[in-house]
Amino acid sequence: MSRTLPTTTPAGRTPRAGHLHPSAGRQHHAGPLAYVLLGLAALVSLFPLYWNLVAASHTGERVVKAPAPLLPGPRLFDNLSFAWNQVDMGEALVNTTLVAGLVALSTVLFSTLAGFAFATLPFRGRRALLALVVATMAIPPQLSVIPLYQIITGLGWVDQLQSVVLPSLVAAFGVFFMRQYLVEALPVELVEAARMDGAHSLRVIWHVVFPVARPAMAVLGMLVFVQAWNDFFWPFIALTPDGSPTLQVALAGLGAGNHTVDQAVVLTGALVSTLPLLLVFAVLGKHVVGGITAGAVKN
Question: Residue 67 half-sphere exposure, CB side, CA atoms within 13 Å?
Fold first, then answer.
């Protein structure tokens, strides 16, 4: 009759049944130093936005005068009214929202579909095609300005919003980003099980791929929306301030006067252009945080 020897710990002691480390299951709380450091980081991050608000509430002479103002002034609504009417900022906001929204939606959709194909679908030349897509990220966008402008001129799209939207319907970075995410987050067995149940490709994408890719789609959508919202180089070439400008093109002519530029009015326009981005982050922030926390937990 054999006996089972007791298991010993590295220290040579036999652990007792149900014996746990004293710190096991204990909830750890951040100390005062952590809260102090987080508070300082938040103040440093929010100070540029605060000073933008302060500068927008003063005159242009006071903004450029030393020392710089640190408290809000009385001219915020006057500057807002002047900036709003000088460049028709309402139309520019609508145009920018339309352009950034369409670019973000199309990029997220096409990048998710292409990322799913590169991640799970076996086809000939998949690696070479993915390498070609990634290689296009190394091409400077300035090289495509002349041929792209010739194309939109031939189509009669100069000073029209489709000249800004259509060249940005999909991005190589989005395809690579979604492919890398789906390789880790989407098991091939899950797709095969859906096909075994009789689901066609569109149903697999809608009921399997999109729910799994939702956190990455939210992150990509937010990044692309911010990039399209702040894009200035190509919209400044394709659009004109007197036609249908985006917000960044309209801000280029803001505050101009008799050989001077009113910096307070310019910063007022910058403040108006920043507020929608904060709203987008407030809406998509929980999805971004949820995707980060979901990716931090391993099954």
Answer: 3
Q: Report the pLDDT value the prediction gives residue 64, as an integer from 0 to 100.
A: 83
Q: Nearest 5°: CA angle at 93, between 92 and 95? A: 65
Q: How far apart are CA 134 and CA 115, in angstroms?
A: 12
Q: What percent of the chain has pLDDT over 70?
A: 84
3-state helix, strand, coil in the chain (%, to 5): 70, 0, 30
Q: Which residues contact 213 (CB under 8 A, 6 or more apart)?
A: 112, 115, 116, 178, 181, 182, 185, 186
Q: Would the pTM of this model clear 0.85, i.e. be above it?
A: no
Q: How does DSSP classify residue 4?
A: P
How many residues are present in the chain? 299
Convert 235-262 into a string of H (helix), E (strand) and C (coil). HHHHCCCCCCCCHHHHHHCCCECCCCEC
φ and ψ at 256, to 5 degrees? Answer: -70, 135
Cα distances (Å, whole numbers) of residue 266 to 87, 122, 144: 11, 53, 30
Does the structure show a pLDDT above 90 at 132? Answer: yes
Residue with tokens 């910096």: 263
Which helix (H) or strand (E) covers residue 107, if one does?
helix 89-120
pLDDT above 50 for 299: no
Average pLDDT score over residue span 42-65? 88
Per the structure block, which two tokens stand in for 280? 């987008």
